[in-house]
Amino acid sequence: MRIVMAVLMLVGLIAAPVAAAGQARGHTVAYDNYSLTVDGRRVVLWSGEFHYFRLPSPGLWRDVLEKIRAAGFNGVSLYFHWGYHSPAPGVYDFTGIRDVERLLRLTEELGLYVVARPGPYINAETTGGGFPAWLKTVDGRARSSDPGYTAAYREWLSRINPILARHQVTRGGSVIAYNVENEYAVNVDPLYMQQLQENARADGIDVPIVHNNCCGGNLANWSSGQGAVQIPGVDDYPQAFNCQDPGTWGTWGDGVTRRLRDDAPVYAAEYQAGAIDLNNAGYEKCRELTGPDYMKVYYKSNIIASGATMYGYYMLHGGTSWGWLPQPNDVYTSYDYGAAITESRGLTAKYDEFKRQGYLMTTIKPLAKTDTIAPPAPADPAVFTQARANPDTATQFVLVRHADRRTSADVSTTLDWSTPDGSYTVPVRVNGRDAKILVAGYDLGGQRLVWSNSEILTHVTVRGRDVAVLYGRDGEQGSTVLRYSSAPDVRVLEGTVRSSFGGKDLRLDYTHSGLARVLVSGGGRPPMLLMLGTDQTAAQFWRMDTAAGPVLVRGPSLVRSAAVAGDWLVLRADMDQAGEIETFAPAGRVVVDGRLVTTRRTPSGSLSGRLSGPRPVTLPALSSWQYRAEPPAFGDSGWTVADKTTTASPIKPKTLPVLYADEYGYHYGNVWYRGTFTASGDEKTVSVNAITGRRGNYLVWLNGRYLGSAAGGTQADSEPPVNQDPGRGDFAIPPDLLATGSTATLSVLVTNMGHNDDWTADDTRFKQPRGLFGVTVDDAKISWQIRGANDNDAERGPLNTGGLYGERAGWHLPDRHSRWQPAPATMPTGVSWYRTTFRLDLPADQDVPIAVRFGDQPDRKYRAFVFVNGWNMGQYMPDAPQRDFVLPAGVLGRSNTLVLAVIATEPGALAPAGLVALGNHWTGAAAVDQRG
Ligand code: GAL
After folding, report:
1. Residue 3 pLDDT > 80, yes or no?
2. Which residues touch 739 (CB under 8 Å, ≥6 apart)?
3. How many CB atoms lie within 10 A of CB 63?
4. Where exactly are the transmembrane stretches of this chain (predicted)?
5. What is the spatial distance between Cα 403 and Cα 646, in angstroms, rounded to a whole number?
C-alpha cells in the first residue's frame, strides 16, 4: 500500500514543467547572425507546425504536443486562424475548442517554444486562407493598407495579440517569435507589413518579428526597407505536391534555405515535411514523397549548406479540416498531409527520422553557431561533402551524400579529413538516397570524439558515466575514434566490435547491426557506455529531460514524460505491444504509467523490465439506420429576401438581384434558394450559373420536380479574364409542368465548398462569390429568397453547419430522436438524412483512434456529411480519395450518434459504413483525455 501511495505521489510530480520555456519569470530573447538566444544561451529552434483548429478536441492537444516533444523538437509553429474565431464582425470566441490560451499554457508546461503566426492571412489550405468569410463583404483590398481591410484586421489583432503577448518568453511564456503575415510575395504593400508590426509592438509583442518568405529570389523578402522584419525566413517545398509520383526528387529545387539578413539567423520558416494531396493519390503516397530518404538528403543537406538554426517543418501533424475548414481547391476533409504524425495521431517512419535528426540538433550544442569550412575531400567524386564548424569549439559537421542527389547508387570511398584532432582517412559509404552528418572534434560528455563515420543520435551523462548512441545503416561498416591519454579498458558487451589503441586514439571498427554495446573505462576519462545501432534500433531510444538531467529510455512505442524523484524514475509511456523497457537514468526503480516495473540491473548498467501491451478491442457494428427526408426548400421559416443589387465582390453577377450567399450572411456550407415567378406556361429552360469552388455542385427543382444538377464554378473562373459563364447548367422544363398564370417555385440547393485563398493578395480569388451567379427562366421575373445556416451553435462554431433544413432544425444533433423512419432500400434524389447510434466501451488506459470507413463506390452520385454527436467531421464526396473519417476522442464519447446528411443527384444506394480502429496504444490512465 505504501508503495502504491508513493507511486501515486511521484506520478503527481510528472506534471511539473521541465524545460526552459515554462518558467514563470521572464527571459531575455535576442539573436545574432548565428542563432536566437535566451538569457544569452544559444538556442537552435527545431520546431514544426501543428494546427489546433484541425483537432477539435483540446484534450488531445497534449497528446500531439507530447509526441512532438518526444521526437526531440523544442518548439512548435502555430497558425492562429482568424475565421475560426470570428463568425461575424466584432464577434470573437476563444473558448472551448478555440481556447488558445489552453494551448499556449500546454506549450509552456511541456517546455516547447512557440512561433506564433496570427496572420491575419495564413493560407494553410483552409477556407479563405484563414480570413473570415465576412471579410468578403468588406470594401478594400485584403492584405493591403486599405482602410476598410485595416479596420477589419485590427479587430482580430486587438484580440489575439494581447493573448500572444501574455505568453511570450519575455514574460515567462513560450512564444519566442511572432510571424507577421504569410508568404507575402505578390501585389505587396510595404506599408501594410510595417503597420502590422507597429500594431504588434503597440500590443506588447517584444519578441523578434519574423516572416516566412516564399518563392525564391524574385520576390520581396522583407529583409530591408519599409516593412522589413527582424528575422526573415524562407519557405521551401523542394518535393512539390505531386503525390501520384512519390519517386520524384527535388521538383522545386535544392531546398537550401537562403540567408536573408547578415544580422539575423538563417531561418527555414516552413520546410516541407509532407504534402497536400493535389492529385488524389491518397496521403500514404504523400508520406512516401516526403519520406525518410527525402528527409535524410534534403534536411541534412540544408542543415550543413545553410547553417540554419531556426526550423519550422510543415506539418508535423496535419489533422482534420472538419466542418467547412477546407479550402476548396487543393484539399478535402483530411489534412493528414503525409506528416510524421498521422491524422489519427499515429507515429510513422518519418517520425523516427525526425527523432534521429532532432536529437542530434538539440543535443549537440556547437551546432548553434557554425561557419562554412572547407570540407574533407572524398576520394571518389561521386560523393559530395560540405562542412561547417563551430568557431569556438572547432567541432566539425560534415555532410556526406551523392554528388548527384537523384542517384541511388552504392558508393564506398574515403574522406581525407583534417579534424581538429589530426588528419585521418575516413571510410564512408552512401547507398541509395541517403545523406549523413558526421561529427569530428566534439566533447561528448566527458569523452573526446575525434571522428566517427556513424551518426550521433544523442548522449546523456548518468551518475558520472557517459551513455552515447551512434548509428548507421544496417549492414554498413562503421568506425569511431575517441581520444584518451592512455589505453582505456574496452569491454564489448554485445555485438562484434574490434578495438585498437594507437597514439592517443581508441579506434572501434564494426558493422552496424542490431545494437552493439561497448564499455570504455580508464584512459584518463570518465567511463562510457557506447551503443552502436542501426536506424531502426537507434529509433527505439527516447531522450527525456528531467530536473536530474536528461535520461534515456529504450523500448516503449512512445515516452511522453520522465521525472526523477529520489531513487525513482517516473515515466509516462505508450506500448503498442508487450515488450522490453530499458532505462538509463540516475534511479534504481522504474514506474511506468503509475505502475512499478520489475526490473533487473543489466551488464550495461541500465535497468531492464517488461511492459504489457494493450488489450484487444472490438468495435460495434453500425446498424439500424433510421431515415428522414428533407424535401426541396422545405419549411417556411428562416428565409431571407435576396434583393441586393450591389456587391463588394470584384466579380459582378450575371443577373440581378445579387444572389451571393455571403451578401446575406450565409458564409459556410449548403444554401437553399427559392425563386418564385408567375409562369406564362411557355417557359422552356432554366439556365443557372453558380460558383461553388472545386467539387461543389447544385441541384434544381421546379414546382417540386427534380430537373437535374450541375457542377459549380471553380477558382479558375476568377482568373482574368473572369469567366462570365461559370458553373453553367441548362435544364429543360417538362411541357406539362407550368400552368399559365400560376405561381411557379424554383428551388436550388447549392453546395458551396468554402472560400478560395488569397495567395495573390488581389481580392479576385478570395472575394470570388459563392452561390448563385445568375439564373434565368426564359424572360420570367423571379423574386428570390435564400436560407443558410442559423449560426446558433456556440460550442462547435460557424464552420460546423450550413443551411440544410435538417442542420437548422438540429437533425444532426444527438438528442433529436423523434420522427425518424426505417431507412428505405433506395436513397432518393435530393437530401436524405440517416442516423444510427453506437456505444463505445474502450479501456480508459488505452488510446484507440477510431474512424468511420466508407466502402468503395467510385461512381457514386452523392456526397455525405458525417456528423458525429453533432460535429461535422467531414464530407465523403465523389472525386475525392478519402474513405476514412477520423473521429477524435472528445468528439466521440461513450454513447454516440452518427448522422449522415446525404445529397444525391441520382437515386442509388449508400456505401456501407463501419467503424475501424486506426491503432491501439496502451497509454496509461492520464495520457489521453478521452473527454476531449
Ligand atoms: C505554404 C503556406 C502554407 C501552406 C503550404 C502548403 O506556402 O505558407 O500555409 O499553404 O504552403 O501546404
Report:
1. no
2. 679, 681
3. 26
4. none
5. 61
Site of grid cell 561557419: 371
119 CA from centroid of ligand 1 (Å): 12
Q: What is the pLDDT of residues 737-790, one digit of tens each?
A: 999 999 999 999 999 999 999 999 999 999 999 999 999 999 999 999 999 999
* Nearest CA owner, ligand 1 atom 4: 124
pTM, two decimals, is 0.97
For residue 226, give the C-alpha cell.
519599409
Q: Whose CA is nearest to atom 11 of ligand 1?
A: 124
Average pLDDT, integer, range 530-543:
98
State residue 495's pLDDT score.
Answer: 98
Q: For the segment 705-723, what is each residue's pLDDT rounded down to a tens digit? A: 999 999 999 999 999 999 9
Report d(CA 673, CA 627) in Å as an integer. Answer: 24
pLDDT band per the 50, 70, 90 thresholds, residue 85:
very high
Cβ neighbours, 10 Å, residue 837:
17
Pocket test for ligand 1, best of 79, 123, 276, 334 (most atoms within 8 A of CB): 123
Which tens digit of pLDDT belongs to each residue from 822-878?
A: 999 899 999 999 999 999 999 999 999 999 999 977 788 999 999 999 999 999 998
Residue whose C-alpha is closest to residue 174's, from 91, 69, 246, 299: 69
435-444 sheet: strands from edge to edge:
371-373, 383-389, 396-402, 435-444, 447-452, 477-483, 505-511, 497-502
Cα of 792 vs centre of ligand 1, distance in Å, is 32
Atom nearest to 212 CA in ligand 1: 8
Answer yes or no: is the C-beta of 519 below 6 A from any ligand 1 atom.
no
The pLDDT value recorded for residue 927 is 53
Nearest atom of ligand 1 to the alpha carbon of 122: 9
Say how far apart CA 51 and CA 102 lie, in whole Å: 14
Q: How far, in Å, CA of 380 to CA of 413, rounded?
A: 6
CA of 186 relative to ligand 1 center, distance in Å: 15
Please say whether the beta carbons of 630 and 806 come within 8 A: yes
Which residue's C-alpha comes closest to atom 6 of ligand 1?
Answer: 124
Q: pLDDT at position 782, please?
A: 98
Going by pLDDT thresholds of 50, 70 and 90, the confidence category of residue 930 is very low
The CB of 290 under 6 Å from ligand 1? The reply is no
C-alpha grid cell, residue 610: 517488461
Q: How far is the CA of 208 from the centre of ligand 1 (A)?
A: 22
Atom of ligand 1 nearest to the CA of 125: 10
- Residue 124 CA, ligand 1 centroid: distance in Å: 5
C-alpha cell at 192: 501594410
Contacting residues for 860 by C-beta, under 8 A, at least 6 apart: 878, 908, 911
Q: State pLDDT tens for residues 546-585.
A: 999 999 999 999 999 999 999 999 999 999 999 999 999 9
Structural element, H or E, at residue 23: none
DSSP secondary structure of 258-306:
PP--TTS--EEEEEESS---TTS--HHHHHHHTSHHHIIIIIHHHHHHH
**Ligand 1 midpoint to CA 342 (Å):** 18
- Per the rule left: phi > 0, alpha: psi between -120 and 50, beta: everything else, 464 is left
Any atom of ligand 1 within 6 Å of the Cβ of 574 = no
Between the CA of 62 and the centroid of ligand 1 the distance, in Å, is 24
Is the CB of residue 275 below 6 angstroms from any atom belonging to ligand 1?
no
Query: Rounded to whole angstroms, how far apart are CA atoms 427 and 430?
Result: 11
Asked if residue 235 has its Cβ within 6 Å of ligand 1, the reply is yes
Cell of 759: 495567395
Report the pLDDT value the prediction gives residue 9, as an integer from 0 to 100.
Answer: 46
Q: Which residue has the cell 479587430?
A: 155
d(CA 712, CA 751) in angstroms, rounded, equals 8
- Assess contact for 123 and 214: CB atoms under 8 A: no
